Amino acid sequence: MLPGLQLDLFMRDVLKGRGLDTLYPDVSRTYHIGKTGANVFNQFYNGYFREHALAKDSHYQLQGLDKLGPKSYSELISDLISRAKTVDHTDNPCDQHFITEGEDLLVLYYYQRDTRESKQALAIAGCLNLWNVDRVRGMFNGVLRTHFRGNRLLIVGSMTKYGNKFMPKDIQPIRIAKYKDELDIGQ
To answer: Please, what's the b/e burial string for 85-119 (b: 16 or more CB within 10 A of its CB; e: otherwise)?
Structure first.
């Protein structure tokens, strides 16, 4: 019996316990979601997937496969973060104008108590309407790499090796007020 997780999440947690990580493709993985089936109810499908545009063209050439090993992927993430423009951390990520279109490569840093904590990443993903389920999926060593409003966006944990190396000293990592009691910040 699984400890309250879906099988794919359980397996990823087992791998993380061994010091391994899962790489996620930088493309939508929802093509396999059907309206009927054992894992998706009609209401869930209609609420989350019905309006998703799916590419019908299957003539794609995969590129960068050599960068998917742990060391080379980590180097790729470091390179992206080093070139990214840091978003204004004094703005509220839940504001609909938090990130504008067309900036290209952006990074934001979220608060962590320790390297495994990701509640703030989940809250930020929820504010940006990227993800609103029980946990953030697609994290690599505390970094969520995604696309938002035409921008490539890296959401980086403040306590990760990337946060320690690249986060400007003059900014505070983003904290969502929803978790203020847990974070011991003011009322």
So the answer is: ebbebeeebeeeebbeeebeebbbbbbbeeeebbb
